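User: Hey, my collaborator sent me this sequence without any context and asked if I could get a structure. I don't really work with proteins. Can you help?
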Amino acid sequence: MTTLTATIKRIERNNTLITAISEEGEIVKFDLISGEVGINHKITGSLDEHGDQEVTNQTTKQTLDVYMQQCL
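Assistant: No problem. I've predicted the 3D structure and written it out in structure-token form, which is a compact way to encode the shape of the chain:
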């Protein structure tokens, strides 16, 4: 399990479909189950693993429950 960082770039579908760009330049898409994010917020977690995850919004220091749709 590798901890990666990404920046939120797009929020769609009633604020639940999130697109972010990792520091490596890869696109990361996930469904936001609980928590809040905003454009340009930084998130960290196992962004390269598919399925249910907990990631951290480093901007707000909030834990987010997400479903990773797309692996790096």
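In plain terms: The first strand starts at residue 4 and ends at 12. You can pass these tokens on to your collaborator as they are.
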